[in-house]
Design goal:
The complex is a heterodimer of chains A (about 120) and B (about 110).
Chain A (H helix, E strand, L loop, with lengths): L3 E4 L2 E4 L5 E7 L6 E7 L6 E7 L5 E2 L8 E7 L2 E6 L8 E7 L9 E2 L3 E5 L1
Parallel strand pairs in A: 2-11
Antiparallel strand pairs in A: 1-3, 3-8, 4-5, 4-9, 5-6, 7-8, 9-10, 9-11
Chain B lengths: L3 E2 L5 E4 L4 E7 L7 E6 L6 E6 L3 E5 L2 E6 L4 E6 L8 E8 L8 E3 L3 E6 L1
Parallel strand pairs in B: 2-11
Antiparallel strand pairs in B: 1-3, 3-8, 4-5, 4-9, 6-7, 7-8, 9-10, 9-11
The chains are: A mainly beta (about 120), B mainly beta (about 110).
């Protein structure tokens, strides 16, 4: 069964608005979750690492003020795309491992964001 | 040089044949290797992972790792049309953290009935 749950599956928003995406680990506590992004015809790229109880770690080139990450509990991380623009339209996928040193990464179902 | 390289394909095989998907990586220190399957419009699904040199089999899937050649492959036996998807090879970032993966571009597999 699913290990990681993500919501919503798709969202359409107007330029300038903000969108929140939720990611939950279903049967384990995830002190760390990972947010990836995939543009059409491209592979997945890691955006940031979400750390429970502390600030997220962002990959080079990812604006932390635009992509707000909150990991308030051991089973929930949220990604908020602030002041969305059409170029933010993408497939956002959260993920988690049971043990980041040894266990494989499991992905949520992803969120298709379209900014008009 | 890209860190993880795959032939984008498409790789076309007839139903029942063996599909062979290849991946090379640049970091000689990499210790774990993952194959994900991604259907169009869906998120990646873990197929196999391998840590040791040699072969690892799981049903119709076999992962092969050769660390000396920095090469990992995925064989799919008795290919089915439902196997048609993009297959992504992934290697952890230099830290070894399996949550921080570097993905190849993916190989699109087409299995023709």
């Amino acid at each position: 069964g699913a290990v990681v749950s993500q919501h919503p599956s798709w969202v359409i928003c107007k330029s300038g608005t903000s969108v929140k995406i939720e990611c939950r680990s279903l049967d384990f506590q995830a002190t760390t979750m990972f947010w990836y992004r995939q543009f059409p015809k491209q592979s997945l790229m890691l955006m940031a690492t979400s750390n429970e109880g502390s600030k997220a770690t962002y990959e080079q080139g990812v604006e932390k003020d635009k992509f707000l990450i909150n990991h308030a509990s051991l089973t929930l991380s949220t990604l908020t795309v602030t002041s969305a623009h059409p170029e933010d339209s993408s497939f956002y996928i959260c993920s988690a491992t049971r043990d980041s040193l040894n266990s494989p990464l499991h992905f949520g179902n992803g969120t298709r964001l379209t900014v008009t | 040089q890209k860190e993880v390289e795959q032939n984008s394909g498409p790789l076309s095989v007839p139903e029942g044949a063996i599909a062979s998907l290849n991946c090379t990586y640049s970091d000689r220190g990499s210790q774990s290797f993952f194959w994900y399957r991604q259907y169009s419009g869906k998120s990646p699904e873990l197929i196999m992972f391998i840590y040791s040199n040699g072969d690892k089999e799981d049903g119709r899937f076999t992962a092969q790792l050769n660390k000396a050649s920095q090469y990992v492959s995925l064989l799919i036996r008795d290919s089915q049309p439902s196997d048609s998807a993009t297959y992504l090879c992934a290697v952890p970032h230099g830290s070894g953290n399996t949550g921080k993966l570097i993905f190849g571009q993916g190989t699109t597999l087409q299995v023709k009935p």
